[in-house]
């Protein structure tokens, strides 16, 4: 019960990583307010939570919505934990064709939302003597090949924002950290491509099967894997940790595939065979 007596806000809490985080925090004693554009999903989660999770419709691209979300948590008894997690794939165009509007929309969804989440949560936390903020970045912040350019750039921004905010807010006893998920089986892939209904289930099954083989730990990464890291960073177990991030990627970014997959030969192995 690491979060007994604490109140948390989780954006994007209606699905995937945010949903698992809301459930994990609530399971460990927190009262959780989730903000999401998905009213059906958010409402259903709140309804089935026995009063531990509440839902407020929130579009994180709207600063007023974010301010209203954290204000609601504060009014209910104070804000201790803020998880800036909501997101979607954003614009998929490469840099030589993307429009300025699509670029701005993607940054507003994935980077400005996190900045404004921190901006509006921090003063409320500071007034209570401190708090913990956790932001969701992505392995796409670390290199190419994981996600589109606008998304990946925003997620890299989230990592640096995490450090800058940690520096700004340490004096108020607010810790700021990030999680860096790898390939996690959620609706984000199908939602970003507009795949819905029965086709979504089929596509999600394909994604889960692919995700099981994508990294050295050969199983599908789950929202609960990431929620566990978020809960750790939000908890007093991490009370000396700020301005950093935890990779939750099953080893995806350890190195090239041939370094961990015996079925993928390296160029060096081919040269060794040639030399014999
Ligand atoms: N799934 C992965 O492999 C993966 C990897 C790295 C990072 N992430 C990040 O994890 C976070 C959660 O994604 P997920 O995988 O759980 O996906 P998901 O689609 O299951 O959940 C995302 C949630 O965000 C909500 N959302 C989208 N736009 C919103 C908006 N404008 N305002 C409020 N809510 C909005 C959606 O309705 C949804 O409930 C995202 O920031 C995503 O970029 C996911």
TrEMBL record:
<keyword id="KW-0753">Steroid metabolism</keyword>
<dbReference type="GO" id="GO:0016491">
    <property type="term" value="F:oxidoreductase activity"/>
</dbReference>
<protein>
    <submittedName>
        <fullName>NAD(P)-dependent dehydrogenase (Short-subunit alcohol dehydrogenase family)</fullName>
    </submittedName>
</protein>
<dbReference type="Pfam" id="PF13561">
    <property type="entry name" value="adh_short_C2"/>
</dbReference>
<keyword id="KW-0560">Oxidoreductase</keyword>
<dbReference type="InterPro" id="IPR002347">
    <property type="entry name" value="SDR_fam"/>
</dbReference>
<comment type="similarity">
    <text>Belongs to the short-chain dehydrogenases/reductases (SDR) family.</text>
</comment>
<dbReference type="InterPro" id="IPR036291">
    <property type="entry name" value="NAD(P)-bd_dom_sf"/>
</dbReference>
<keyword id="KW-0443">Lipid metabolism</keyword>
<dbReference type="GO" id="GO:0008202">
    <property type="term" value="P:steroid metabolic process"/>
</dbReference>
<keyword id="KW-0520">NAD</keyword>
């Amino acid at each position: 019960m690491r979060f007994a007596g604490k109140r948390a806000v989780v954006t994007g809490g209606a699905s995937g990583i945010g949903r698992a985080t809301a459930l994990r925090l609530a399971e460990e004693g927190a009262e959780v307010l989730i903000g999401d554009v998905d009213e059906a999903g958010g409402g259903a989660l709140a309804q089935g939570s026995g009063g531990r999770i509440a839902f407020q419709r929130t579009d994180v691209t709207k600063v007023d919505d974010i301010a209203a979300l954290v204000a609601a948590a504060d009014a209910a008894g104070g804000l201790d934990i803020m998880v800036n997690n909501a997101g979607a794939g954003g614009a998929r165009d490469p840099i030589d064709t993307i429009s300025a509007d699509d670029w701005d929309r993607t940054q507003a969804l994935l980077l400005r939302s996190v900045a404004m989440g921190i901006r509006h949560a921090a003063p409320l936390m500071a007034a209570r003597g401190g708090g913990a903020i956790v932001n969701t970045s992505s392995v796409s912040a670390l290199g190419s090949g994981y996600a589109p350019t606008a998304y990946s750039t925003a997620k890299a921004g989230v990592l640096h924002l995490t450090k800058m905010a940690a520096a700004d807010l340490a004096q108020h006893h607010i810790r700021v950290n990030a999680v860096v998920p790898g390939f996690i089986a959620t609706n984000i892939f199908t939602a970003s491509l507009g795949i819905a209904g029965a086709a979504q289930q089929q596509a999600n099954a394909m994604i889960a099967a692919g995700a099981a083989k994508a990294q050295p730990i050969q199983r599908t990464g789950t929202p609960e894997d990431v929620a566990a890291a978020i809960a750790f960073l939000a908890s007093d177990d991490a009370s000396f940790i700020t301005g950093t991030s935890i990779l939750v990627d099953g080893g995806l970014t350890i190195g090239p595939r041939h370094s961990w997959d015996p079925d993928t030969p390296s160029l060096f192995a081919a040269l060794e065979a040639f030399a014999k």
